Amino acid sequence: MTLRLHAPAKLNLFLHITGKRPDGYHLLESIMGPLALSDEIAAEPADTLSLEIENAALPRTDNLVLRAAEALQKKAGIQKGAALTLTKTIPVGAGLGGGSADAATTLHLLAKLWNIKLPAKEMEALALALGADVPVCYRRESCFVQGIGERLTPLALPIFPIVLVHPRKPLATKDVFAHHQLPFSPSVAIKAFNTVADWVQFLRSCKNDLEPAATHLMPEIAQMLSAIAGTADCRLTRMSGSGATCFGIYDTMPHAAAAALLLQQQFPSYFVQATLFNV
Fold first, then answer.
1. Residue 150 host element (H or E)
2. CB under 8 Å to 107, separation ≥6 — which residues?
3. Which positions are annotated as active-site residues?
């Protein structure tokens, strides 16, 4: 029996750094949600844990997928194994939460394969121990995220047509945070909006606090943001997460697809894709 599950990428519509704890963890506020862009993980019963990776040169030993599997084994007190296959589509080191999505999906997949039934709060605590973005990826829904990633408030958001642009060069999260400059941002009050236009108007009052630091490390980010903003019917441009993926929000999917075509011509070696947010 082989089980398969998609691992949706996540997108940060904004990202504010609001403080820093004594232990060094940064406090954040963000609206994060799933994209139609996804990896896929397959699992089948086996005596031990193993991982094969397709479409990406990633380590098979020190990998978040295996760490998630081992954490679930330990939490449930079981010795069952699984042969896991990760098929990558999400760009690596892109600020799209590919590793976090893969870890969260592994928890879902193996809980089903191993018939583990733990309370949702325990599963989310397990997810948080794997990384700040793993809990919201585990939820598989758009949320207002606070704290170090543990405070999640579900949001009723419309579906946004999106264009993603990534230079196919990874940007290390720790390096971006190391270059982040004070001051911290104030807390944001989230309201309920019904339309993409209303959400875009709100998002214009927000930002990505890591964008200056990421741009310092990778100047291509400024070029991507400028190019996206120059496409027809683009309503908002921003960097996602710690970078280097930049995105634009559009009114319709045909507008997004037309923009993606032009941007791919402008950046022929980059990853460019029109997709949907909050699906």
1. none
2. 68, 72, 123, 126, 127, 138
3. 10, 133
d(C-alpha 39, C-alpha 7), whole Å: 5
Domains of the chain, residue spans: 3-153, 157-277
Residues 6 or more apart whose CB falls under 8 angstroms from that of 256 comprise 161, 162, 163, 248, 250, 274, 275
CATH topology of domain 157-277: Alpha-Beta Plaits (3.30.70)
- Give, for all 279 residues of the chain, the pLDDT tens digit: 899 999 999 999 999 999 999 998 999 999 999 999 999 999 999 999 999 999 877 766 669 999 999 999 999 999 999 999 999 999 988 999 999 999 999 999 999 999 999 999 999 999 999 999 999 999 999 999 999 999 999 999 999 999 999 999 989 999 999 999 889 999 999 988 989 999 999 999 999 999 999 999 999 999 999 999 999 999 999 999 999 999 999 999 999 999 999 999 999 999 999 999 999
CATH number 3.40.50.720 is the correct assignment for the domain at 3-153: no
